Amino acid sequence: MIAVLEKGASLRRKAEIVRFLEQEGFRVQVSETAEGAFVSIVGEGSESVAEALRGMPGVVELKPDAPGYPLVSRTHKPESTRVKVEDIVIGGREVVVIAGPCAVESREQILQAAEVVRSAGARLLRGGAFKPRSSPYSFQGLGERGLELLAEARDRTGLRVVTEVVAPEDVDLVAEHADVLQIGARNMHNYRLLSAVGSQPRPVLLKRGMMSTVDEMLLAAEYIVAGGNPRVILCERGIRTFETSSRNTLDLCAVPILKERTHLPVIVDPSHAAGRREWVPALARAAVAAGADGLIVEVHPDPANAASDGRQSLTPDGFRELMRELGILTTAVGRCM
Ligand code: PEP
Ligand code: MN
Asked: Domain holding 290: CATH number?
């Protein structure tokens, strides 16, 4: 439920309302907009205090709570959230590119990949140390050694590092080495993992589950923010449909829908959607045109010999060409890189 306050309500009035709601056991969020202030009441059973609230000085209207995700909803916080990773801002004017291999395979491979993507203009380096693979016989990642190599790549290039965490018990270890923690599509519904990344301070890149709706993704984001971490970046990476020509179906509709429903930044992963490097640039360009705040793209120094997802990884030359095109495109849509 949202309590709309009278225009120019004093700090004292707001504090009284907040105190009352907190004493009743609710979590509240006060938002200031051009139209005035409002208080979002988070938690089940907020209707029970409606009567009392209505009678309080300063409250002009009560609005029912449409979404089940008040903390990430744009209704409750109209201004866009900018997630900062050191000096990088995701959710502002800049279209932020995250690039690198699917997995960290060796010291040479990740350092080479980092240099390639840095010199082409990427802002963050991606690379999985813990890989959630569909088959138990596929390469599972280098684990802690992979995290150390990512940290070395950051020290050498200045790129910030994004890597996936697959289990709640690994969160502290991954957070020690990485700048952004990725929750993969397969784990979007892993609520204990979502709560675990919600109770640590590093930003979280939350990927859409391959069979999840936009609202389910927002509920997953709500878990993280409710856990205490407001620094969440959403990622559309393609969903499973009847179409089998591409690895997944990139749901570009999700970009404007998410932008409407949430204040959180939205990025797109064209690589896992396409499944083939030939199709990645077209999807990347379309995502930027659709209003994405960034991209996460797989790039490998030697895709033919990649341990995972080589078929969809751009070559160094392919990535440089994509970055050149994105430079033109971002200007055309009033963004920058
Ligand atoms: C990945 O980023 O390499 C990955 C496994 O992605 P997703 O979780 O979207 O499949
Ligand atoms: Mn991958």
From this structure: 3.20.20.70
* Residue linked to tokens 């204040």: 263
Structural domain of 194: 83-332
Nearest atom, ligand 1, residue 208 CA? 9
Ligand nearest to the CA of 296: 1
148, 296: one domain: yes
Q: Could you tell me if 59 and 37 are in contact, meaning their C-beta atoms sit under 8 angstroms apart?
A: no
Q: Both 92 and 56 in a single domain?
A: no
CA-closest residue to ligand 1 atom 9: 185
Are residues 142 and 9 part of one domain? no
> What's the pLDDT score for residue 65?
66
Three-class DSSP category at 129? coil
* pLDDT given at position 32: 78
CATH of the domain at 10: 3.30.70.260
DSSP structure class, residue 290: T
Cα distance between residue 128 and residue 178, in whole Å? 11
Note the pLDDT tens digit of each residue in 150-187. 999 999 999 999 999 999 999 999 999 999 999 999 99
Least confident of 13-22, 27-36, 75-84, 191-200: 27-36
Report the range of poorest mean pLDDT among 11-20, 101-110, 236-245. 11-20
